[in-house]
Structures are given as structure tokens and as C-alpha cells.
Amino acid sequence: MLEHRISCFCFFLILFGGLQLGTDADAAKIKPSVQAKQSKEQLFFPYNWCLAFKIVSISPHTSYDFHGDNAEFDVKVKVEHVLRDSTNTTEAASYKEGRAVYETAVRNGDEVTFCLSKHSNTDLKRYIESLQGKTQVWAFSTWSKFNNDKRLHFDFDERYEPFHGRSFSAKKLADLTAALTSKPSSALEANLPIERYLKARWTISRIREFCHKENRLIRYVPHPDPSGIRDNGSWYQGILYSTPTVGQVFWSADTVNGIPISYGLVAKYKSDVWQLESENFDLKASFTDADVLKKRIYDTLELGFEQSHKAHARPPRTEKERSMAVLYSSTPLAMPSSWREFVIETNPKTRKAVALDCKTSAGKLRVILDSNKDITSVLVDGKPDTEWTVSLAMARREISRLYHN
């Protein structure tokens, strides 16, 4: 998993003379010859914001800015240095009465609000309070270049700290700012680090492990569309693999102001389609063989949840539900908050996965697997869950109808 981080990490090592990095970097494994080679390539830094700041205050998130706003806390910060600003563009953020509307840039000394969501079990309030008075440097990506009056929405777990726990001079910040303004000179130059990142996460064997009949895509349009590559200036795209064993694997990377910030990865084998991922880039994230299994099981459960959801959906009843465009089934299913929270149980003799466990708001969810690692039953607090049984059956019928097998 080291390879996709090398370009970015080596750049920091060279530019800042061996400055200590965060715990995710294993500097001892980066050889000087690799540093020299990688440093000549385009800096792969897939975040459209990078700010040095100090925290002013933290409060519960109460103002919902758009549908799907799931932030938990509003963290007011005072910006000390803008290393990368997503508003630094000639593109209009929107149009009003036929006139182009441009964002107000974030500048040194501005107060900005981070609207933070999270998936982990981190005590976010306590962690943020522990940072007060200390200069932080966070890189992150927002879903749009429109920052809604300097309220920046992003996932706390996906932030990247290139100078974790370190102090730095104004000159070093200025040098990095200059480097972060450079952009790829060609599509080929842009594609190379993206494909290196994706191949490190998704090997051929992992794709074969993920692509089972019961998690084929049925609930939304794949991203990207596997029907073919299309020219468009707002994203990068390509074919990651084309082999007899996995078919074709298509990718596209969405950009903000020319910076790749998120990607979609789709596998197509004959008429079957799987959405491998649709995520933000995350330089600090690890991805293992166990994660592939966890994600496949989670996606299978989610397909069942969506089918039950469609059958029993009701209109939103509260202002928060309306603002977030939330629809619940009449008897909500117990969904895990993230596939990363699954714990795999293996047979001590064969070492094969036999079950996955996850704590949910409704109790302990347990997924029983057969020898092919497909789901045979779902338990909640040790008892068979009828709703899960019905919802998975609904999903399997829909998959069979769409794929005819």
C-alpha cells in the first residue's frame, strides 16, 4: 500500500529536508533513488483545500445547508495560511439572473466554519478541544467548489495532515503553496498517479473476490458509465484493467478547479456490473483483502436495505428529515454506519471467514457466511431477523430480473 503515497511523501521529504511526517508514512522504506525519480513527477495531492489554522470554537451542527447534509459539528477556525484554495478559479460557482457568481476567496486571517461529519467512533468534540491553541494543517476535499459563505463541509475521517504534530516556518508554507498550484500538463501526466493509487487498492485478485452475483449493481447508475469512455474536461478517466478474468474495469476522477478529488471505479464482465468504489481520494487510508470482503458484504446488505426502503418508504415527518431528504421504511432495518466497522470471524482450523459482526443502534448485527462467503442468514442480538431475510430476498429477485441469472 506504500506505492500510491510515495509521490506525495517524497515531495515533502525533499522540500522540507526530512521533516517528520505523520504516522501513516514509513520513511525508512523510501529509498533515495525512488525519491529522485518520483519527485520529478506531478505532485499527487488530491485535495481541493489545504489550510493552516487555529481552532476558535466547536458547537453542534444545527444549520443544514443542503439535502444530504450530515455534519455533526461546526468548528470555527481562524485561517493562518492558505496553501490551496478551491475558490482560486476562473470558473463561476453559479449563475443568478444570467450573471456569473464567483466565490469570495478564503484569505489569511479569515474565519471559516468546518462542518464536520464522521464515520469512526472518535469523540470528535474532545479531540477538537484538545487542538485548541495549536496550529493545524489539514488537507480535505469538499463535494463542490461552492463553499456556501465560507462553510466548508467534509468528512473528518478523510482529512489529511501532511505536517502532523509539527511546527513549520512561513517560507516552508510558501514553498508548499507554490507547489500545490501546479497542475498536470496533460491527461497522461494526470492519469499515472491516479491509476497507481487505484491499482494499489484494487488488484485483480481483490476484484475477483469482490464481484459476486449477489452484489451486482441494481440501485443506481454506475459511476463511471461502463458503456464507454467519453471526452469531458471536468474529469480524468481511463480503463484500469481489461482481462478475461475480470472483464473491463473503468475509472473516472471528478475534479474541482482541475484537482482530482473523488473517483468512481466500475467492473463490467459480460452483462454484469459492479460498483467497486465511489469515494474521495484519501492518501492516509489503508485497504486490505479483509476490507474487500467487508465492503462486499456491506454492499450486499445495503442492496437489500434499498429494496425494502423502496417498498415501504414514507414521506419525511420532521424538518431535519426534509432538509436531509431522508426516507425511512415503516420498520427501519438495523444498518451499520460503515463497512469498516465490520469484524470478520474466521474458522480457527481453516482460517476461512464464517461470519461478520457489527454493532448497530438496534443491537449486534451478525452476518453468517457460507463456504463461498455469500450471506446465508442475518441475526440481530443472536436472533434471526425477519426483515433482513425479506429484504435480501427482494434484492436477489431484483438482481435476477435485471441480469436474467
Topology:
Elements (H helix, E strand, L loop, with lengths): L2 H13 L16 H8 L9 E12 L12 E12 L9 E3 L2 E3 L9 E7 L6 H7 L5 E5 L10 E5 L14 H11 L6 H15 L2 H7 L24 E9 L3 E10 L2 E11 L2 E9 L8 H24 L6 H6 L18 E4 L6 E8 L2 E7 L5 E6 L2 E2 L1 H18 L2
Parallel strand pairs: 5-7
Antiparallel strand pairs: 1-2, 1-6, 2-5, 3-4, 8-9, 9-10, 10-11, 12-13, 13-14, 14-15, 15-16
Helix pairs in contact: 1-2, 1-5, 6-7, 7-9
Task: Provide structural commentary.
There is one protein chain. With 405 residues, this protein is α+β, with helices and mostly antiparallel strands. The strands form four sheets. It has a five-stranded mixed beta sheet. A five-stranded antiparallel beta sheet has the order 12-13-14-15-16, with helices on one face. Strands 8-9-10-11 form a four-stranded antiparallel beta sheet, with helices on one face. It is built from nine helices and 16 strands. A hairpin with a 2-residue loop joins β3 (94-96) and β4. 27% of the residues lie in helices and 28% in strands. The radius of gyration is 22 Å and the shape is globular. α1 (3-15) packs across α5 and α6 packs parallel to α7 (289-312). The relative contact order is 0.11.
